[in-house]
Amino acid sequence: MLFGHPKGLFFLAFTEAWERFSFYGMTALLVLYMVNHLLLPGHVENIAGFAAFRRALESLTGQFSPVALSSLIFGLYSGFVYFTPVFGGLIADRWIGQRIAVVIGALSMSAGHIAMAFERTFLLALLLLVIGSGFLKGNISTQVGALYQDDSKRTAGFAIFSASINFGAVFGPLVCGFLARYYGWDYGFGVAAILMLAGLATYLCGYRYLPARVGRRSPTSERLTRADWRVIGALIAVVLIAVFQSISYYQLYNVFKIWIQEYVDLRVGGFDIPVPWFQSIDALVAILAVPVLFWLWRLQASRRGEPGEIAKIGIGAWIAAASHLMLAAVIVSTHGARIHPIWPALCATGMGVAFLYYWPTLLALVSRAAPARVNATMMGIAFLSLFLANNILGWIGGFYERMGPASFWLLHAAIASVGGFLVLIFGRRLARVLDTSAPQPMRPSAMTLEVES
After folding, report:
1. Secondary structure of the chain: what % helix, strand, coil (to 5)?
2. pLDDT exceeds cutoff 60 at 355
3. Which of 124, 132, 262, 405 ranks highest by number of CB atoms within 10 Å?
4. In this structure, what are the phi and psi dihedrals at residue 442, rounded to the nearest 5 degrees?
5. Confidence label for 92 from pLDDT (cuts 50, 70 and 90)
6. Could you count the other beta carbons within 10 Å of the beta carbon of residue 307?
7. β-strand partners of 272
8. What is the per-residue pLDDT for 382?
9. DSSP per position, 346-381
10. Are 408 and 255 in contact (CB under 8 A)?
11. Do residue 129 and residue 99 come from a single domain?
């Protein structure tokens, strides 16, 4: 024990901090790297297997510009990052255990970050990162929960673990973005690789304090009732509604940075702001706004006015829509002039608040309401919605050049608004179905607030 918690928690927290640092740092560079360097003539020809890869994509949707192609590649990559943990968890549970799975994941991600520094191995790098994330992402969180027998201490342990995630999400883009802007892409990707290796070294140092295999509680043998199926159907409906918010939010990681590079005045007091720094804003909001929202919700509850879970998901949609609408209005009002960096910063701030309203609430709702027999499956479906959302937003990013910035962000305001309207139309009916009196234990997977959970 250390400070009242198992020693293994701190090894896991620091491992996750370095892993998230490298992951978010690399993600902050990815689209800009493709648009400004890798997909340009003289470089794109160097990528092993890229010609065949591009032909396969264009056979489905037609020819791509470098911007459209980079958006689609980003959507595929970020989508599959949320798809492979399903299989990584299955392999760990049935065959190799969580401890070995995390080591495999860390090794694969380290190799991926190293390969990212070379043009020829770009596609291999993305594949290694996707596979590594699949082995590491879910299994390391599972180990945190397995360290505890006391539910109250488990909650505190996940709070510490979540802080490490947000630390990496804030500082990864700052450090990698600065190095890439002032020293070159290789330095940005290189430090991501070094810190991923540091995460692996940290994990191996604490290896003996960690559970090799996490036992799963056997679900009840009772069959699902008709009421259970109604709850499952309602949860799937809520998850599908949240896809619209996710499309709007995760575009911050994709075309948002291309737009900033083209239209925002990044020179402030003689210093050029690195574009990836804007990705750190919503991560910082995830840290600073949580106590404010908790205070607001307690105040509303004391006056019997706190929104319900589905209502909060709808509020998140409206905040996201307002953030993009503000951006479109600013673009129109400037008549083509460079935009002050405060506006994209405010948009990212609003999107960070929107995220806190809809995503952790969705996870908590699924954890509370899903029948015990399929609780983990329903949590997996919630995360698979991000696979769907990221692939859709990557495809939508291909319209950016044809639509123009103002229309593009208006489109995303409309997409988020669809989620808000669906909550207005169906929210009360869904809430009645999900307002079950049967208590459900809070699962640890719903306690981990991650910027791209």
Report:
1. 80, 0, 20
2. yes
3. 132
4. -70, 120
5. confident
6. 16
7. 267
8. 87
9. HHHHHHHHHHHHHHHHHHHHHHHHS-GGGHHHHHHH
10. yes
11. yes
The rounded Cα 200 to chain-centroid distance in angstroms is 21
User: Residue 6 sits in which domain range?
Assistant: 1-215
Residue 156 domain-assigned (yes or no): yes
Q: Which of 29, 32, 40 is nearest to 65 (CA)?
A: 40
In a domain, 85, yes or no: yes
Q: CA 406 to CA 443: how far, in whole Å? A: 42
Each residue of 31-83: pLDDT tens digit? 999 999 999 999 999 999 999 999 999 888 788 899 999 999 999 999 999 99
Is a pLDDT exceeding 70 seen at residue 155? no
Note whether 203 and 280 are same-domain residues: no
Q: Do the Cβ atoms of 446 and 365 come closer than 8 Å?
A: no
35, 127, 137, 384: CA torsion to nearest 10: 80
* 211 and 229 co-located in one domain: no
Q: Looking up tokens 């988020």, which residue turns up?
A: 416
- Which of 380, 426, 389 is CA-nearest to residue 87? 380
- Nearest alpha-carbon partner for 101 in 87, 111, 115, 114: 87
In degrees and rounded to multiples of 5, residue 117 shows phi and psi of -75, -5
How far apart CA 349 and CA 307 sit, in angstroms, is: 21
The answer to whether residues 281 and 351 touch, using CB atoms and an 8 Å cutoff, is: no
Supply the pLDDT for residue 274.
95
How many other C-beta atoms are found inside a 10 Å radius of the C-beta of residue 124? 17
Helix (H, G, I), strand (E, B) or coil at 306: coil
pLDDT at 28: 95
Of residues 285 and 162, more confidently modeled:
285
pLDDT per position as a tens digit, 13-24: 899 899 999 999
What span, in angstroms and rounded, lies between the C-alpha atoms of 174 and 188?
Answer: 10
CATH number at residue 1: 1.20.1250.20
Q: Are residues 391 and 449 in the same domain?
A: yes
CA separation for the pair 34, 193 (Å, rounded): 18
More confident residue, 447 or 430: 430
Would you say 46 and 238 are in contact if contact means Cβ atoms under 8 Å apart? no
For residue 92, give Cα distances in angstroms to 129, 140, 169, 443: 18, 11, 26, 19
CB atoms within 10 A of CB 76: 18
Largest CA distance in the chain: 67
Whole-angstrom distance, CA of residue 241 vs CA of residue 314: 9
Token readout for 242 is 């949240």
Cβ(108)–Cβ(135) below 8 Å: yes
Same domain for 255 and 193 = no
Question: Any idea what DSSP says for residue 40?
Answer: S
**In 165-290, which ranges are E strands?**
267-268, 271-272
Whose CA is closest to 135, among 99, 168, 89? 89
